[in-house]
C-alpha cells in the first residue's frame, strides 16, 4: 500500500489545494501568519511565574520558548523540516561506513521454524552493519539494535518478524541497545513486525507497564529513520519515540536522556494496545505518510482505552505531523501531557484525515485545562493546516 498517495488523495478530497505544492505551501504560510499574530499578542500578556524545582541528574527544566520554522515545500517536491539535512548527513555516514551483511549468513531461518534472535544479534554485532533480511518469516524474541545499524527487509508484504509465543510480555519487538548511554544512527525499513498480542488471553491486559510491550521503541536515540514498516498487534504502542527515563516532577520539568532527530515515514500500525505512534520527552520528530488504525485497546481496562492513532505526549518538543491518516481509534491525534509533566510543545500538523475515530483530535494538559486548575506553563505552540476532523465519527467501545 502506497500510504503517501493514499493519504494525500483522501485529504485532497476535502481540500483540493492540498494536492499541489503551491497550495500546500500557501496553507502553511497562512497558518503561520495567524500563529505569529497570536504569539505576539500572547507575549504582551504573558506573566512569568517564579518556581522552585527539585531537579536531578534525570530531570531538567523544560524550556518553552522558540518555535520551529514552519515546514515548507520550497524548491523540493517533498515537504521538508529544517533539521532533515542533518539527519540525512548522519544516515549517509551510516550508509558509507557500515558493512553490508545478510542475516541468513548468521543462521536465520526464513521459514519461521526456529528462533532467529541470535542470528540477528550476530549479524548486528556491535554496530557498523547494514543487515539485509530477505523474504520470509523470522521468529524473534526481541531485538536490541546498537548504534550505526540498519535492518532492511525485502518489503512489508515479504519480510515478517514475528515474536515467538514464549517472549515475555514486557519485551519490545525492537528497541535500541543502550538506554542510558544512548544510541545513534539507526535505520529500520521494509518489513512487518508482529508483536502478536494474541499470545495472551483476551481477558488479560497486553502491556506490562512503563515503556515495555511496544512494537518498536527508540529510547535515547539520536538520528533514526523508520520507513515502510508495518507494526501489528503491539501490546502497548506500535512505535514509541521516548527517553530512557520519565520525569513526573511537575509542569516545567522534563526528562534527560531524550531522543532527537527521528523520522517515522510510511508506517502502518494496527491492533495496538494503546497508541499507534507516540512520542515522549523527545525533540525534533517528523511523522509522515502514516496510517494508524483499529487498535485493540488491550493495554487498558476494558472501556477505558484512550487509544489514539498518534499521540504527542509528555515533554515532546518540535514535532511535525504530515499527511497522516487515522481510523477507528478512540482519538485521531492527541497532543497532551499528564498533570505532573510538561505538555507537548511546538507541534505542527500539516494534512491529516480522521475517519471513524470517536474523537478526531484532543489537545489538553491534564490537570491544567479546567477553570479552577493552575495554568499550564508549557502547553502552547500547536499549528494545524488541512486537518479534516471527523469523517463518519462514531461511538467506540474502546472508551466509555
Describe what you observe in this structure.
With 400 residues, the protein is mainly beta. The protein has a single domain, classed as Pectate Lyase C-like, CATH 2.160.20. Helix content is 14%, strand content 37%. The protein has four helices and 25 strands. The strands form three sheets. Strands 6-9-11-13-17-20-22-24 form an eight-stranded parallel β-sheet. Strands 12-15-18-21-19-16 form a six-stranded parallel β-barrel. The longest helix has 25 residues. The radius of gyration is 20 Å and the shape is globular. The two termini are 33 Å apart. About 2% of the residues have low confidence.
Structure summarized in a few sentences:
The protein has helices spanning 3-12, 21-45, 84-97, 117-124; strands spanning 59-61, 99-102, 111-115, 129-133, 136-140, 143-145, 149-153, 159-163, 174-176, 183-194, 216-219, 221-232, 239-242, 253-255, 259-265, 268-270, 277-279, 282-288, 291-293, 308-312, 317-327, 331-337, 345-355, 359-365, 382-391. It has 400 residues and is mainly beta.
